[in-house]
Amino acid sequence: MLFCAEAALIGGIADWFAVTALFKKPLGFPYHTEIIPRKREQVIEGCIKLVQKEFFTKKQMLLWSKEGGFIDYILAYVEKNNFQKEISRRILDYFEQLLSSLNAEALAMQLDMLIHEKVQNTKLLPQVKDMMIDFINSEKGSTQIDILLKRAIQKVEEGAINDKVKAYLEEYLEEKSQGLLSMMMMFVAKQSNVLNVDEIAQTVQAQLIYTLTEMRENHNHQMRRALIDELKNSLHRLPDNIELCQSFESLKMSVFSGLQTKQLLKELIESIIISLKRPESEENALVRQGPLVEIITTNVENALYTLKNDIVLKRNLESYLQDVVGRALLEGRNMMAVIIRDVLEGLTKEELNRLIYEKVEEDLIWIRMNGCIVGASIGCIIFIGLHLVG
Questions:
Q1: pLDDT digits (tens, 9 = 90+) for 366-378
Q2: DSSP, residue by residue, 242-255
Q3: Cβ proximity of 313 and 306 under 8 Å
Q4: 55: DSSP letter
């Protein structure tokens, strides 16, 4: 028994020495002892690699992110908890805070400066020219041309042009009747009613009425198209008239300078802010009252409905979220390594030893016990062998 006890004691002391040498110097022995403190950096690196390569590998991180279902989960959560009202309330609160932070006077001043700069840099006559050409090309412009032609027909029918035609003919005949022979022939023609100015004027009137009517009824009439083209050409030439351009610019600046745009803008902004904000009695409630509340709640409902039913949008968002989550997990994996390093490097030698020892204390005790048991067993075998041989 004494032989076995001595062997068990030797085995226990040997294992105690080995286990103690992991953490400190047993009995002050300096060689190949205090292994963990001396290999501190390798221990830290080993812990990091254990976490990264065994528990949180890149492949595992990407697989977690690809499991997906983010959009379905979000929609289910919103629907289950009636969260769309909360979303609308949060957006509404944000916009109301934004509206409350607006300085109407400062904003009006900035807008006034922008408007003044825009007005000064914008030439009025080219803008008027473009507007008039667009109007002529539009259906309304065509209708106005029809109205003008109708009024022209009415004027011609009333005989407003007859006197001018007669006067022109009389003047023309007078110019052609300068000689004696011409005067005699013109006199004979008038007396024999061969040359009747009144009939010529009536013929011109009838032909003009017919032509104007054709132009009014047929929008593709050659003379109507020629009239419109001439109007457009005249309008295109307007900006080349320097005097007219200067007159328009003077008119523009005189009219604009007389407007109190800054005050008008300030009043407009203040009225918009007041109309968009909820009454004070409703600040804690989300009710369908007021344009801003209506706009926000309607758009939130439409956005959720679209997100739920638009398969392409849903798939694209799901892919985007998977990518974001995957990147976040990979970044978290790298941050985990930094955290482990910072924590372990911040421990003293005694704290690091205690941290590791407390995790495996029971196993280390059993290592010592196993040393005693193995030593005793070997001592018993040797003792029996010696007695058998002896």
A1: 777 777 777 777 7
A2: HHHHHHHHHHHHHH
A3: yes
A4: I
Residue 306 has pLDDT above 80, yes or no: yes
Q: Flag whether pLDDT at 319 surpasses 70.
A: yes
Q: Are 52 and 337 in contact (CB under 8 A)?
A: yes
Find the length of the chain: 390
- CA angle 272/277/281 to nearest 5° reads 145
CA distance 49 to 15: 29
Taking each continuous run of H as one helix and of E as one strand, the counts in the chain are: 18, 0
For the beta carbon of residue 202, count every other beta carbon within 10 angstroms. 14
| Span 130-178, pLDDT tens digits | 898 898 888 888 888 888 888 888 887 777 676 676 676 666 555 655 5
> CA-to-CA distance for 256 and 211, rounded, in angstroms?
45
List of residues 6+ apart from 157 with CB closer than 8 A: 205, 209
What CA–CA distance (Å, rounded) separates 277 from 91? 13
Burial of 304 (0-12, 13-18, 19+ CB in 10 A): middle
Phi-psi region of 241 (alpha: psi -120 to 50; beta: other; left: phi over 0): beta
DSSP codes joined into one string, 90-138: HHHHHHHHHHHH--HHHHHHHHHHHHHHHHHHS-HHHHHHHHHHHHHHS
Tell me 30's DSSP state: -
Whole-number Cα distances in Å, 328 to 64, 295, 314, 325: 11, 34, 21, 5
Band of residue 294 on the pLDDT scale cut at 50, 70, 90? confident
Among 324, 326, 301, 321, which Cα is nearest to 72's?
321
- Residue 111 CA to residue 132 CA, distance in Å, equals 28
Tell how far CA 62 is from the center of its chain: 29
What would the mean pLDDT of 195-202 be, rounded to a whole number?
A: 65
∠ Cα 322 323 328 (to 5°): 95
Task: Look up the pTM and report it.
Answer: 0.41
Round to whole Å and give the CA distance between 226 and 218.
Answer: 13
The stretch 281-307 carries a mean pLDDT of 68
- Nearest to residue 198, comparing CAs of 155, 169, 158? 169
